[in-house]
Amino acid sequence: MERRPLVLILVGLLVVAATGGTFLTVRPAQKVFGNSTYAESSTGLRLYVSLNATVFRLGQSVDISVQEYNPLAQSINLSRSNRWPVGGLSLGPCGTLNFPMGFAVYAGYYTSSDIFLGVPLPLFELGTYYCPMFLSNIDYYLFQAESDVGQVFGSCIPNPCLTMPMATYMSIGGFWLTSLYVEFPPGIYTVAVEDEWGTMFLLHFVVTL
Q1: 6-15 confidence digits (pLDDT tens)
Q2: Domains in the chain, please, with CATH?
Q3: Banded model confidence at residue 30, pLDDT cuts 50, 70, 90
Q4: Integer angstrom CA distances of residue 108 from 47, 105, 115, 118
């Protein structure tokens, strides 16, 4: 029996297969973040990241949770920045969509001083996807007090264009080599999570036999 890849996307669920592509529906994940670690940002936000474990057996899925959270008692208004520390991060096959954060997985152990030398693993199969609505322009994000709920203001009438939790969750079991799906082989891996205001956080996990 052919083994199929394990890729569960809650930020954008693969819902319909159609001739020439796949339709995506975006549903921001309301994920409970237990034992999360976070990076403080100069913006006042906290970028929370968590893995379901740090050591996995071959074939087990790696669950990655990401959350942009405002811990302050007042809202935070942030203009769009695009100051991503490294490129190539996403939240699914359609990129980061209208979210201000993303992540990537790298084979090997990287730190903040050499992550720029790494190449993100292709977590999604190459193909045509019918992605959800992209805003042609985002002016700023308004993060509600003591919450991960954010409002997106930009190219829409009326504003805000979107109000949604700035939280995503993904379960992955490997990566793609062109049309071949490969489970994470034994070794050490780096997960890079960042937001567009320059905050970056690195986590590591190990896959064993």
Answers
A1: 333 343 333 3
A2: 7-208 (2.60.40.1930)
A3: very low
A4: 23, 9, 10, 9
